[in-house]
UniProtKB/TrEMBL annotation:
Recorded family membership: Belongs to the enoyl-CoA hydratase/isomerase family.
UniProt record, GO biological process: fatty acid beta-oxidation
SUPFAM superfamilies: ClpP/crotonase (SSF52096)
Protein name: Enoyl-CoA hydratase/isomerase family protein
Highest taxon in the source lineage: Bacteria
GO molecular function: isomerase activity; lyase activity
Matching InterPro entries: ClpP/crotonase-like_dom_sf (IPR029045), Enoyl-CoA_hyd/isom_CS (IPR018376), Enoyl-CoA_hydra/iso (IPR001753), Enoyl-CoA_hydra_C (IPR014748)
Keywords: Isomerase, Lyase
Taxonomic source organism: Thermomicrobium roseum (strain ATCC 27502 / DSM 5159 / P-2)
Length: 272
């Protein structure tokens, strides 16, 4: 999309490009899985590239948002089973661990993350999407956890995160059966947060980015930290959350927000 905030890469020959494309635009980073001939399946190289890149991005104070997507025709079809079929059991475990590390690196990013989903989003690819804060998709999206049909189950956090999104019963249905949802059903049960027709995903993302830029970067990071505590800690108290909120009371961003309110103008954020 011309003029997009996302700088979406065009489809390219995977033999001539890295397995992960990274585009920066004014604090917005788009990570594009780039193995289109195998529907962006996660081999060791791609899993390690995602983990390393996400860990580096986590140190960037100017970062506002990370968008994760795949080079068409898919978001991510899961682990590269062709590669895995040639591995020893020990190597298969290392492959699973590498995918889990990639998923956790995305989950631990200190800023909002969005999975932009077109086409297949399956198995480890679906776990990557679950690790994001939001999932935006077009109607070509198909989401599922087919691991039980291969004799395993989701090993990169899907069993933990899926019930939090859709409830235990629906999660059990999907995980026990291994069936794949179309975009409409995934949206209906809350697995997809926003849904659009094909060709409109970038427009939907750009609209959300415009809304995000009106929010103070420090406040957004604090909200992300609070949500991470709520979702990953067994006993979170109001005092734990208030400690994150209290730190904002003396921040320059809060001062600017108050001034902008009094002066009836939009706030001007340092990393806006």
């Amino acid at each position: 999309m011309k003029g997009s905030s996302l700088d979406r890469p065009e489809r390219v020959d995977a033999m001539e490009q890295p397995v992960l494309l990274v585009a920066h635009h004014a604090g917005i980073v788009t990570l594009t899985l780039n193995r289109p001939t195998v529907r962006n399946a996660l081999d060791l190289a791609l899993a390690r590239a995602i983990a390393t890149t996400a860990q580096e991005l986590a140190q960037d104070a100017s970062l506002r948002l990370v968008v994760l997507r795949g080079t068409p025709p898919a978001f991510c079809a899961g682990a590269d089973l062709t590669e895995r079929s040639k591995m020893s059991p020990r190597e298969r475990t290392a492959h699973t661990d590498a995918i889990a590390a990639a998923v956790e690196a995305i989950a631990e990013l200190p800023v909002p993350t969005i999975a932009a989903i077109s086409g297949a989003c399956l198995a480890g690819g679906a776990e990557l999407a679950l690790a994001c804060d939001l999932r935006f998709a077009d109607t070509t999206a198909r989401i599922g956890f087919p691991e039980v049909r291969r004799g395993i189950f989701p090993g990169a956090g899907g069993v933990l995160r899926l019930p939090q999104l859709v409830g235990r019963g629906r999660a059990a249905d999907l995980l026990f059966s291994g069936r794949t949802l179309d975009a409409q059903e995934a949206f209906r049960i809350g697995l997809i947060d926003q849904l659009c027709e094909p060709g409109h995903l970038d427009t939907m993302l750009d609209h959300w980015i415009t809304e995000l830029r009106q929010a103070a970067p420090g406040a957004v990071r604090a909200v992300k930290a609070a949500l991470q505590r709520v979702l990953t800690t067994d006993a979170v108290t109001l005092a734990d959350i208030r400690s994150l909120r209290r730190a904002l009371d003396e921040s320059p961003e809060y001062e600017e927000g108050l001034r902008a309110f009094a002066e009836r103008r939009p706030p001007s954020w340092a990393n806006g």
